[in-house]
Amino acid sequence: MRISARNSLKGKIVEVTKGATTSHVKIDVGGTVVTAAITNTSVDELGLEVGKTAYAVIKASDVMVGVD
């Protein structure tokens, strides 16, 4: 897989929760869980299931920082 995004995190899918049109996919990346919101169609086409290896690909133009 070759992509332009530079932030690609390999991990294991720990949860897939389907909604009406959007799914939330949780990927454990070395003990940190990253959640992606993608279409149900994408979940089906990619064959995403708990226990499978997947990549969290992060493409962002900026990062926000907050404090308490």
TrEMBL record:
<dbReference type="InterPro" id="IPR004606">
    <property type="entry name" value="Mop_domain"/>
</dbReference>
<protein>
    <submittedName>
        <fullName>Molybdopterin-binding protein</fullName>
    </submittedName>
</protein>
<dbReference type="InterPro" id="IPR005116">
    <property type="entry name" value="Transp-assoc_OB_typ1"/>
</dbReference>
<feature type="domain" description="Mop">
    <location>
        <begin position="2"/>
        <end position="67"/>
    </location>
</feature>
<dbReference type="GO" id="GO:0015689">
    <property type="term" value="P:molybdate ion transport"/>
</dbReference>
<dbReference type="Pfam" id="PF03459">
    <property type="entry name" value="TOBE"/>
</dbReference>
<keyword id="KW-0500">Molybdenum</keyword>
<dbReference type="InterPro" id="IPR008995">
    <property type="entry name" value="Mo/tungstate-bd_C_term_dom"/>
</dbReference>
